[in-house]
Write a structure and sequence with these properties.
90% of the residues lie in helices and 0% in strands. It has 103 residues and is mainly alpha-helical. The protein has one domain. It is elongated, with a radius of gyration of 17 Å. The N and C termini lie far apart (43 Å).
Length: 103
């Protein structure tokens, strides 16, 4: 029972993090330059600030990808081959939905 709850928690956590990541990429186009440009307009960033903010966003994106991959690897270790295939299919469907939303 505990393993099932842990598995459900992991799947929900991964799904939520993927959704948040996809939403962030959708909102900002997955491009730190676009995010910096937006903040520059809103906050009147100096050139020096723009460089620093872009570095922060680039690092954030790298960190999020690393966290996502680590979670995926951990999750794959827990799932059966059938469950893993279902999760992969769900991820592909999620990607398709994200691409369709961008159009």
């Amino acid at each position: 029972m505990n393993k099932k709850l842990t598995l459900i928690g992991l799947i929900l956590s991964l799904t939520m993090s993927l959704s948040a990541f996809a939403a962030e990429e959708y909102h900002h186009g997955g491009d730190s330059s676009a995010r910096v440009e937006h903040l520059t307009k809103v906050l009147d960033l100096t050139a020096d600030q723009q460089v620093k903010v872009k570095a922060i966003f680039d690092k954030q994106q790298e960190d999020m990808k690393a966290i996502h991959e680590a979670a995926k690897t951990s999750l794959q270790a827990v799932l059966t081959k059938e469950q893993s295939a279902k999760l992969d299919a769900a991820h592909e469907e999620h990607k398709k939905m994200g691409k369709a939303a961008k159009q």
